[in-house]
Amino acid sequence: MTIEVEQELRATFATRAAGVMVVSDPYPATARRITRARRRRAFSGAALAISLVAAVPVGLHLAVQQSPSPSPATAVSGPLTWPTRGSLAGDAAFLKAVRQRTGGGKVAYAGDDGRNRAAVVFVVERRSAKAYVLYGPSGSTASALRKEGLFESADLPLDPRPIVWYSPTKAANAPQILLIIGSPDMRDVRLSPGVTFRPDGTPHRDSIKLRATQGAVLTEVRDLRSPDLKARIGGRDTGLPSTYAFATGLPDTSPGFQAAVEAAARKATGQVDPAEAVNLLHMTAAQLNVAVGKLTYRFWWGGRVAGHTVTIATISAPGTPTFRLVDIWQSDGSRSGGEGDTKGARFTGTPHDSLGWTTGAGLHGSGPATAAVWVPGKPGIRVRFRLGGRTLGERRTDSTALAVLSTTMTENQLSKADYQVVNDHGGVVGRGGLGLDAFDKAVETSDW
Q1: Number of Cβ atoms within 10 Å of the Cβ of 436
Q2: Are 87 and 111 in contact (CB under 8 A)?
Q3: What is the value of pTM for the model shown?
Q4: Going along 31-141, which residue ranges are E strands?
Q5: Exposure of 448 by Cβ count < 10 A (0-12 exposed, 13-18 middle, 19+ buried)?
Q6: What angle do CA 388, 391, 393 make, to 5 degrees?
Q7: Rounded to 5 degrees, what are φ and ψ at 51?
Q8: For residue 332, how many C-alpha atoms fall within 13 Å in the half-sphere facing its CB?
Q9: Higher model confidence: residue 187 or residue 379?
Q10: Cα distance between residue 62 and residue 201, in whole Å
């Protein structure tokens, strides 16, 4: 995954929460971070992974990935122009009863698979659109179906990407309804219930393939290894992303969780921002596909580097390796806006190992970049920054054991540099590279 991917994953909480009518998002900062940080990476694979993690109350688990308005060429095939799909698409009486539940509108889907019944309705008002989902047991009348707000968009036409809805459940191993509505030519959906890690720490996904009927899938999902699910959308090349991810994990807003994070932040060297620490944990939980309460974490360092808020942490979850992360966030002054990035890799060293990274000044790391090296427990020690055998400069670590070198290079150029930790006798006592990779590369795989 990459610049666009990490920004999209951070978008998860905001995408779904912003689309839920009436309910406000309790974690706009987390949402925006999960979205925007992903824009800092260039996608190197064949498909874009978009996480649609809900930051909304239990029961509102729908996600529609909205992006800038599509071009006129793609807009014509958007959701509002799609035909009604589903086994009940020809049942005029049922469709009329469904529209009465939503005060009118167009029924985009109406189906019954013998276990569950579901319908999706679009209601257009001037230049905005609302969508509702109605669902319940097979055979239910329209009046007996449960109704939830799906999304609300002020931008028309709607993005032509598939619409994904995932029903809520509190019971362990209980079936959950999955409904995906794409363009009529969507052929299949490949589902993956989550990432597992091999003994060597590399990620792996199992998956199953479901056949779409006229571009729609209504099914049940059971026995998830984690609250994460991915769908790979098949069909003709539309120029749209083909991989979608969504999860049922909700942010933990309990006082106990907040207090525990604040206590852990106070133990770090420097100053870890508790709010950013909370955001980092939720983002990591989303990428590891676990509830945030299952994370084991420690914050090691926090402070400001080149105008960015930086947090260094080690984080793991049951069944995952331990990851060492550098979270970089630059606020735009609003409560939830800004740009960010999370770098990291599987950590097999000791807590005393040094750590280097780069920070770019521009949106895509195109401006003058800064190199930073943290040498735990070594304030005042020299750090030599090098590129291709040439010394770029030397700096001593400050009272928090951090050394920083400002450059005129781009982040891409600077990431190829390395560093040496040098003692007072000139001996090299530590070394490493500055090209710390995007964290999502350590936790995602394209093998499915």
Answers
A1: 18
A2: yes
A3: 0.68
A4: 49-53, 62-63, 106-112, 116-125, 128-137
A5: middle
A6: 140
A7: -90, 135
A8: 11
A9: 379
A10: 32
pLDDT tens digits along 394-429: 999 999 999 999 999 999 999 999 999 999 999 999
Q: Which of 11, 32, 23, 5 is nearest to 276 (CA)?
A: 32
C-alpha distance from residue 115 to each of 5, 140, 147, 440 (Å): 35, 10, 18, 36
The larger pLDDT score, comparing residue 361 to residue 342, is at 342
What type of residue is 100? Q
User: Alpha-carbon distance 35 to 55, whole Å?
Assistant: 13
Question: Which tokens in the block code for residue 255?
Answer: 């006082």
DSSP string, 432-444: EES-PPBTHHHH-
Q: How far apart are CA 386 and CA 416, in angstroms?
A: 9
CA distance linking residue 435 with residue 421, whole number of Å? 16
CB of 220 closer than 8 Å to CB of 250? no
Tokens read off for 386: 């090098």
**CB pairs under 8 A, 24+ apart, for 111-115?**
111/85, 111/86, 111/87, 111/216, 111/218, 112/86, 112/87, 112/88, 112/138, 112/139, 113/87, 113/138, 113/218, 113/219, 114/138, 115/175, 115/220
Decide if 216 contacts 109 (C-beta within 8 A): yes
Structure tokens at 372: 């930073």
CB atoms within 10 A of CB 154: 9
Residue 260 pLDDT > 90, yes or no? yes
Distance from chain centroid for Cα 305: 24
Long-range contacts of 129-134 (CB under 8 A, 24+ apart): 129/80, 129/153, 129/156, 129/158, 130/21, 131/64, 131/163, 132/101, 132/102, 132/105, 133/62, 133/165, 133/179, 134/98, 134/101, 134/102
